[in-house]
Every structure is written in C-alpha cells, then in structure tokens.
Amino acid sequence: MKFDFDVIAKNLPYLLSGVKFTIALACLVIILGTFLGVIFGILKLSKNRLIRYPVSFIVELTRDTPIIMQMFFIFFGLPALGIRLNTFPSAALAMSFFAAGNTAEIVRGAIDSLPTGQFDAAKSLGMNYLQMMIYVIIPQALRRMLPPMMGLFTTLIKDTSLAAIIGAFELTRAGQEIIERTFRSLEIYLVVAAIYFIICYPLSYYTRKVEKGRVTGF
Amino acid sequence: MGLGKSPNPILFPMGYQLDPSIVIKHLPLFLKGVFLTVEISFFAIVIGLSIGILAAVARTSKFKILNLISAVYVEVFRNTPLLIQIFIIFFGLPGIGIKLSPYISGLTALVLYVGAYNTEVIRSGLEAVPRGQMEAAKSLGLTGVQAFLYIILPQTVRISLPALGNNWVSLVKNSSLVSVIGMVELTWVALDLNALTFRSFELFGAATIFYLILIFILINIQNFVERRFAYKT
Questions:
Q1: Which residues have a Cβ under 8 Å from the Cβ of B80 and sit 6 or more positions away?
Q2: CATH, domain range B3-228
Q3: Do B187 and A164 touch (CB under 8 A)?
Q4: pTM
C-alpha cells in the first residue's frame, strides 16, 4: 500500500476542528478537576472521620477504576437515575472526577510532606486554620505539587481521546469519522497521534525541567 | 429479583428497577472477562518490565545511537494516547501488510505503553544506585554484565518498585481500552451484556467493583513485595 499524503492534506482542517474540542474538553476537565481536587485533598486531611472517610472513598473510587468505566457509568448508567447527559458532558464529568481524585492525592501528599514544624510555627504565631493554610502551607505545598500536577495534565490531555469511545466529538472521533469515509487508517491515525504529540510533548518537556529545577532549588 | 420488586423511588425516580440478579446470572461470563484482564495485565507487566530495563540501559549507555532510539521510543509512547496506539497497531498496520489478532495487538500496545513509562522509572532508579557499587563489583573481579545483573539491577528494581507499582495500577486500568478492538475482557463483557439487556447501572457497577477488587489485590501484592525487599536497617 502506498502512503497517501493527499488524504491527510484534504482532511487536516476537519482534524483541526476536532482539536478545538479536545482542547476545550481538556481545559474544562483541568479547571473543574483541579478545583474539586484541591477541596477533596484538604477534606481528606480533616481530622473528622465523617468527612475524611467518604471523601477518601470517592478519591479511591475515581483513582482505582478505568476512566472509560466511569464514562460508561455516567453515560449509560445515570439515565437510570433520571440524569440524562450528552456525550460531551458525560465525558467531561467522568474525566473531571478522575482528575479530582488524582489531584486530591497530589494535594494531600504535598501537604503531608511539609515538616510539622511549619504547622506548629504558624499556630504559635497566632494564625487560625485559614490563615495558616493560605499564608504558610499552601504556598509551600504548591511548589511541590507543580511537577506531578503537570504530569497529570499531560495524562488528562491524552485521556480526552477516550471520549471518542462514547461518541463525543473531538480529535480521535474526527479521525474515526474520516477513516469511515476514506478507509485510510494508518495515515489518519498517525497524523492524529502526531497532533497529540505536538500538544503533549512541550508540556512533558517543561515538566521535566521544572522537576530538575526543583531539585536544585531546594 | 427480590430487590427488583421494591425500587427505591428516591434513588430511581424514572421507575428503573434495580436488578442485581442480571450480574449473578452472567457471573461466569464476568469471571471470564476478569480472567482475561488479569492474564493480559500479567503478561504486560512481565514483558513491560523487561522492555523497561532494556530501554533504560540503552538510555544510560555510552552509545549515542542507542540513547537516541530509547529517548525517541519513550517520548513517542508517553506523549500519545494509548487508544491511538491501539488503533494504529490494530487498524493501521494491516495497511502495510502486518495483520495482528486483537489479542496480540492489544497486548503489544499495552506492553509498549507501560514499557515507556517503566523506562523512565528504571532510568532514574539506575541513576540512584551509587557509583561505588559498580566499582566495588568490578574490583571483586565481576565482569560488567555480572556486575549489572547481580549488583546493580537488584538495587535498581528495589528503588524503582513504588513507582513501578503505580505504573502497574495504571496498566490494569488501561487494559480496559483493549475492549475497543474486541478483546473479551472485563470491560467488553460489561459492554456486551449492556447491549443485550440495557441493565447499564448494574452491569457497569459490577464491572467497577471487579476493577476495584483487582486493583486492591495488586496494591496489596505490591506492598508485600516492597516490604519484603525493603532495606533492612
């Protein structure tokens, strides 16, 4: 079989229209997931078991099951509860929970890794919980959170491809639609992979730089 | 069926009747799926570890060309979605005359994907082994290969175990993706039964629980191995 560059050139605009949705989905998931995840992470550190256990349960549930299982559950399963969501919102919701669970674990790990002296010192200065968190703990924890969070973002961008399985339109789905018309799987999927690579590689390259910088910075 | 007759009107406002018996009825099929998920994960863990070690050695070797090949492999497979890799191997490769069965395609994709992640982990493990270890081994008269196999590698694996464990948990979750090319594993079973019975809530709930159990067992094995091989102080 001859490698067909024509089919790539002709369909590139359609693929790029898919990229828009991939990026929109990734941004939505990253924002929603980080927001929820920080809340979960802080709640997970709560001393009250009635708060800590349910939150830990949600976090483990999202971390330890495949994302597509969560997508299927939301897309096919939730209508049983009378909640009917379209493909795109279903994918976004499932991935946001996945992102939140992982973020929570990163937040908890970062706060846990701070020396207890930081908490004692903040309290002995007369700060309340909120002040301690905002002025002392979070700024330090943020620095430790940054590399794993960026790694998570790369994973999330790649995992937006799973939305295609329930039929949400994004880059992978755009590729599938073109292949249904042209039967040029190899060319189209290679281009799709290349587009994902172009989006993800700078992020993972920068992540490594931050990781290295952090090691020497401390 | 017993539960099915008294639906909870608050939980299921649409009058959906929860029927867990569907899962029990199809339990053998589910267990078959679980078995295949375990099987493919196991093979991918073993082969992926070997690839990770080989590629990590190549990555840290003095030969520029090996170094480059390994770096390209790691970056390409880490920065593209696994789903697309599976599609390329299963749907794309026949275009150039390479036809692989769903099982082999899925396993190949999983192995290459987890191998790339393992490479990064093992490479940093290799770098974490003190330089003196190699020198001491050589001064005891071991050859380079012997020193690597008996002195460096065991320490590397020990250092890398926690991070490798994370990769394995991701791997078991990622094995769900091979259902899209028709491998009859856990996710495929749930999807197939869903198409037949429309009992989505119960079926995907059951599959979720099966995955939770699998991951729970894996994490416990990993913790056990980690404790077993921990540095005794």
A1: A158, A193, A196, A197, A200
A2: 1.10.3720.10
A3: no
A4: 0.90
